[in-house]
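Supplementary Methods. Inverse-folding protocol.

Structures were first reduced to a discrete structure-token string of length 142. This string, shown here, constituted the complete conditioning input.
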């Protein structure tokens, strides 16, 4: 049996995701503890409990991509940030292929589902369901 959870959408999600992605990248590059850094920035949105979800999502995203995520600056959104936003909100349904093992793809899928569920609890949501990652690519859920 499959369960479809409502997905978060909108500007609030973009602000939270971009802030967390950039914070995670900066903390990782500087060698800081990741989750405390994320908690500090997520506190502004009253969603500190998303820190472990973001940490997992970012780590598995990098593993699936086989490289470090590139982040934008100020109002410039990088391709990797667009990819994460698309994966989380389902704003695009085109397949995104990852050169990774089925295990990494499954872990990324779990991280995405967990993030959608947690964000659905915390931030405004839409009635649509987001995409999933199966095998080595992202597809629509059945």
């Amino acid at each position: 049996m499959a369960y479809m959870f409502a997905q978060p959408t909108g500007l609030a999600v973009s602000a939270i995701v971009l802030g967390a992605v950039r914070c995670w990248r900066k903390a990782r590059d500087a060698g800081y503890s990741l989750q405390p850094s994320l908690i500090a920035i997520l506190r502004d949105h009253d969603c500190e409990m998303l820190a472990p979800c973001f940490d997992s999502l970012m780590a598995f995203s990098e593993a699936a991509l086989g490289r470090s995520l590139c982040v934008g600056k100020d109002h410039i959104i990088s391709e990797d940030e667009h990819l994460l936003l698309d994966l989380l909100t389902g704003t695009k349904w085109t397949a995104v292929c990852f050169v990774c093992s089925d295990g990494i793809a499954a872990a990324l899928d779990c991280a995405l589902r967990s993030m959608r569920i947690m964000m659905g609890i915390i931030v405004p949501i839409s009635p649509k369901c987001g995409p999933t990652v199966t095998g080595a690519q992202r597809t629509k859920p059945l």
